[in-house]
Design a protein that fits this description.
288 residues, mainly beta, 9-stranded antiparallel beta sheet, 4 helices, 43% strand
């Protein structure tokens, strides 16, 4: 009887393990904000000594020691007062491929240490985060600079990359969430030609920007909650568990051909000298 009970218990535990999909830990041993850093890589606007002209990237397990790494701790550091993580960016002159702007930003990795495993809209995804702007510069016109605090970025599979003869796996970002003069602004991609073939949809040039729209609430320098929910042919962005933008149009449905990953942090949208931004992340959780 004891052996039978042990066998039943083992089977139940096994079923529980295999039924749980990828989800980042809510509890982190280090006394910092609730981010499971093992599932993120970091890009900072510091030149990589091994790759001149390119920004520094660090992943797991190195990212766990972010506060002690020269060239990293200046851009990602803990605020001991509220246990948040601050992401600092300024126009350093070092930007990622296909970009003119500097960033201090996390990139989701579904499999620890491997950015080659990503997700589709059919598989779905959810990001929940608590953010705030600690400080940000003003442009010469007296208005605050703006920065992107979260994204869904597209990625080509190797087969798609080779099909269009592209040198890398980069695809367009389907979603960008801005802090813009105290408001949260959302922009998405729209397909330029609704009759485009599968192959014609793959280049980033096949996609344009929508007009964008602002949530009514003004968050200013207060904490705010962002939730992104993605499913097959549908994307929703929610601010402070109240206002919601839903995207379920033809462009979102056609976007289903791409793989994707979440990004969060500080992607400063200014190259004006002396401009800067400091974005705080108080909590961040992703699940699929």
């Amino acid at each position: 009887m004891a052996k039978l009970n042990f066998f039943k218990t083992t089977i139940l535990l096994f079923c529980a393990v295999i039924s749980v999909g990828y989800s980042q830990n809510k509890k982190v041993k280090k006394k910092v904000t609730a981010i499971d850093l093992s599932h993120w890589t970091l890009t900072v606007p510091e030149e990589d000594a091994d790759n001149p002209g390119k920004p520094m990237n660090i992943g797991y397990p190195k990212i766990l020691n972010y506060g002690n790494i020269k060239g990293v701790k200046e851009y990602m550091y803990e605020d001991p007062k509220d246990k948040s993580i601050v992401f600092y960016a300024y126009p350093s002159g070092t930007a990622t491929a296909n970009s003119r702007y500097s960033r201090s930003e996390l990139r989701e990795t579904m499999v620890v240490g491997d950015d080659n495993v990503n997700w589709t809209f059919a598989q779905g995804g959810r990001l929940k985060g608590v953010f705030s702007i600690a400080d940000i510069s003003k442009d010469p016109d007296g208005k605050y600079s703006r920065t992107i605090i979260a994204q869904i970025h597209g990625r080509l599979t190797n087969e798609q990359r080779d099909l269009i003869g592209q040198n890398d796996n980069n695809a367009a970002p389907i979603l960008k969430i801005y802090w813009d003069k105290g408001k949260i602004r959302v922009k998405t991609k729209v397909v330029k030609d609704v009759n485009a073939s599968y192959q014609e949809l793959l280049p980033a040039t096949a996609w344009g920007d929508d007009e964008g729209k602002n949530f009514k609430e003004k968050v200013d320098f207060n904490k705010f909650n962002i939730e992104i929910k993605v499913s097959n042919g549908r994307m929703e962005v929610i601010l402070n568990n109240a206002e919601s933008f839903v995207y379920d149009d033809l462009s979102v449905k056609k976007w289903g051909i791409f793989e994707n990953y979440f990004k969060a942090g500080n992607y400063l949208q200014s190259r004006i000298p002396n401009s800067f931004a400091k974005v705080k992340i108080h909590a961040l959780e992703v699940s699929h």
